[in-house]
Fold this protein.
Amino acid sequence: MGSTSGESDGESRPSEPVFSDRIFTVPNIISLARLLLVPVVGGLILTGHLVAAFVVLVGAGFSDWLDGVIARRFNQTSRLGRFLDPSADRLFILVTIVGLAVQQIIPWWLVVVLLAREIAVGLCLPAMARRGYPGFPVHVAGKAGTFALMYAFPLLLLSHLSGLWGEVAWVIGWAAALWGVFLYWAAGLLYLNQFREIVTGRVQPT
């Protein structure tokens, strides 16, 4: 994830990462592999192989952390990584919540709440692109929300287990999911405010 880190308030900051045009970097390869696992985890959930889906999601979460560490440590941040990394996260979240809803592990209203945020932010992107912005700079609230959701859903997959482990997974999973939804929407509102500042000319591309 860290390959997408960085914020902008319209001023240049020397500490901001410089994104290169490199394609074949280790973080990009890890992000691409994570993208390829999206249909795998979707198929596992829909076919009822929930423990296997849990393992894949945990591995994806670890790889998400790993590519960020590598990107920062070895200066391998790139424009492609800035796109691939959040795209993989969003697709994992989308496929997982739909699968969990189909399996009746989570209610459909949770799917609607998360999709509404993605649609609200996504509708701003074409107008931003016309003004020279490739997308929103990642905010810490969005990263924290994504992190919470990426670890809430694997736990909810285990909530079907009988006994203490299933109950603990259900409680912690729902606590993380609700916190993640709050942070996800908090970041979304920050992005929408950034969009308002851009379209009103208060912020200019750097």
About this structure: The chain has a mean pLDDT of 83. Residues 2-109+118-199 form a domain with the Four Helix Bundle (Hemerythrin (Met), subunit A) fold (CATH 1.20.120). The helical segments are 26-36, 38-46, 50-73, 79-102, 108-122, 125-130, 140-158, 164-199.
